[in-house]
Amino acid sequence: MSQWFQWVLSAVALYLLVLFLISFYQKVYRSSYHHKASHLLLITANNQASIEWLIRSYRIANQLGSKEVQVTVLDTGSTDDTLRILKRIRFEFEQLEVVSLLDVPNKEEAIQHFVQMAQKEKRPFLVLDLRDLDSHQDKQTSTAL
Question: Which helix (H) or strand (E) holds 72?
């Protein structure tokens, strides 16, 4: 056999092995994956350090389980780069909706309205309130220094 033919045969075998491993992993992962929420509702305020990581990890975890998800971010008035980060990743992730509650007089009522809308959709959802997440991390870091 020529060296070129051996190389092609090896490449095809490797490709088939990778496909088999991905298929096997998805079957195992799907059977052990217990998270049922297909809509993530994030409440933010100055979360530039964690917002992108949270959205990307939620999306990747659900893609591995072959599940389409919707992410709605309710920003209660970020003064850092949170909104700029969300605007950037919105180009990559069509199912990302960003709602600014900056000019809303009663933010808590607006948040409850979005939670009620998610309940009416009749699909599982998850609410994460991140408003104090980064401020607690900053306090812990400054205390450790």
Answer: strand 70-75
Region of residue 122 (left: phi > 0; alpha: psi -120 to 50; beta: else) = left
For 69, other C-beta atoms within 10 Å of its C-beta total 21
SS (H, E, C) 98-143: EEECCCCCCHHHHHHHHHHHHHHCCCCEEEEECCCHHHHHHHHHHH
pLDDT in tens, 92-137: 888 899 999 988 889 999 999 999 988 888 888 889 899 876 554 4
- Min mean pLDDT across 31-40, 68-77, 84-93 is at 31-40
Global model pTM greater than 0.90:
no
**Exposed / middle / buried, residue 104 (Cβ in 10 Å: 0-12, 13-18, 19+):** middle
Distance, CA of 98 to CA of 107 (rounded, Å): 15
Query: How far is CA 85 from each of CA 16, 60, 96, 102, rounded to the nearest angstrom?
Result: 38, 18, 12, 17
